[in-house]
Amino acid sequence: MGWFAAVLFVVSMVISYATRPKPQHAKAAGLGDFQAPTAEDGRTIPVLFGTRDMPAPNVVWFGDLRSVPIRK
Q1: Is the pLDDT of residue 9 over 90?
Q2: Res 5: pLDDT
Q3: How far is 8 from 14, CA to CA, in rounded Å?
Q4: pLDDT tens-digit profile of 36-55?
Q5: Alpha-carbon span 62 to 35, nearest angstrom
Q6: N or C: which end of the chain has fewer CB within 10 A?
């Protein structure tokens, strides 16, 4: 019984590997691809409770965006 389960496991792994979707070759994101939110004087500051998606937040600082090459 144990060998039968092991063989079925191996067969199912081979089938799942053969039928998986092939990854698309996407180009790396550049600094121009980011859309940083801006801070404007006079805009209201929203107060949120829970998890929400804000389309245009009023943010003062947004990350340290720079490119650093990967060296081996």
Answers
A1: yes
A2: 92
A3: 10
A4: 777 778 877 777 888 888 77
A5: 10
A6: C
Burial 37-56 (b: 16+ CB within 10 A, else e): eeeeeeeeeeeeeeeeeeee
| pTM (two decimals) | 0.35
CA distance 16 to 30: 34
User: DSSP secondary structure string, 18-58?
Assistant: HTSPPPP-PPPP-GGG-------TT-------S----SS--
36 and 62 Cβ atoms separated by less than 8 Å: yes
Q: What is the pLDDT of residues 17-38, one digit of tens each?
A: 999 988 888 787 777 777 777 7
Retrieve residue 51's tokens: 């998890």
